[in-house]
Amino acid sequence: MLHSSMARPGTKESTLIKELTDYDQVMPPAVRNTVLRSQYDQRYPREKLLDAIGNDTSGYFEQTLLALARGPLEHDCYTINKEANSITATAGKVIINDVMLGRSRADMDAIKGRYVRLYNKQLNESTFSMFTPDSKKILQTVVTIQRTPETAPINPQQTEADVDEIVRLIKGKGSVVLCHFLCTRSNGQLRAIDYRYDSKHQANSNKYTPQNQGKRGNQDLDTLIKKHYSGYEEQAFCLMLARAVDPARADADQLEGSMKGLGTKDTALLATVVRAHWDRDHMNQVCKAYNRFYGKPVKSGEVEGDLYDEISGETSGDFRKVLLRCVDPGYYDVKGTTKHRRRFGF
């Protein structure tokens, strides 16, 4: 199907979208696309799948299809290499943050291993030599520090000490040491630290409620970081913490950030949508979080301005269709007909 959609005059975009976004109940999307690409490349070695997509499509639609065809691990490596070697490398901070920040130790080990095999060079401090000092020191720390595994147990006494330590580091504006702290603790440990801090300062009394649209207390760690840091450091530290505390909300915030204001940040939008869609359960939670914090409830029980509606309004053509299929393969008929929308429980 893939080859026939590109082999004849006139690319069948609907077939490309369907084949690369179909959801298999048995085989996860990442595994399915890896198998699909391997089979295609073996059968058509003269023009492999990535080359065929590049020759027959263009723009953000092409970028999205290529990301889907590469699979999550290879696309992470591709993105890091592309942004790190770009003449305008500093312009890709948002994209490279999306790939690298808040990742587990297993994720980073996998990325570094595949990066070597793909590009025959190490992913290390020198990779980010073209970046500005503020982003360079954070990204270099991320790739060199061995993070605590997620399987490590939570020690209440250590959590109590860590709460005092992270407050000291934030207020002391020791960005390098704070980055080291956030990079060494597992997501589970950071969640425990955040929860304990909120308990001590009663910052969780108005946290994540429909009435306040998820606005947190005025003494939470996120607010404390924003009070003492700015620019790239603020964005990076807040994202590390957010991905540990509430991963779905963190992605919902990134999606809103890519679409709000004048002009959609299409590269950031497709990066977050494609990454989130590899885990269907996580994608569903992202949709719920987006609808909860950025949608407008109506009497029927549905939501106006939900993620589906926002992407529909901010994009167009085949790029819109492939993103909507990533949000939910059952949401949208790639031939252009809107199907029944499940609203993810709303």
Q: Widest sheet: strand order? A: 1-2
Q: Give the second-level CATH assignment, the architecture of the domain at 246-346.
A: Orthogonal Bundle
H/E series: HHHHHHHHHHHHHHHHHEEHH
The dominant shape is globular
Termini Cα gap: 35 Å
Note the total helix count: 19
Q: Per DSSP, what share of the residues sits in E-state strands of 2 or more residues?
A: under 5%
CATH topology group of the domain at 246-346 = Annexin V, domain 1
Which CATH class of the domain at 246-346?
Mainly Alpha
Report the C-alpha radius of gyration, rounded: 21 Å
Q: What is the SS-derived class?
A: mainly alpha
**Largest sheet: number of strands, sense, barrel closure:** 2 strands, antiparallel
Secondary structure: helix percent: 55-70%
Query: Could you tell me the number of beta strands?
Result: 2
The stretches of 5 or more residues where confidence is low (pLDDT under 50) are: 204-217, 334-346
Query: What does the average pLDDT come to?
Result: 84
> CATH homologous superfamily of the domain at 246-346?
Annexin
Report what the structure shows:
The chain is mainly alpha-helical. Helices cover 64% and strands 1% of the residues. It has 19 helices and two strands. Strands 1-2 form a two-stranded antiparallel ribbon. A hairpin with a 5-residue loop joins β1 and β2 (303-304). The radius of gyration is 21 Å and the shape is globular.
Keywords for this entry:
single chain; 346 residues; mainly alpha; Annexin V, domain 1; two-stranded antiparallel sheet; 19 helices; 1% strand; disordered C terminus
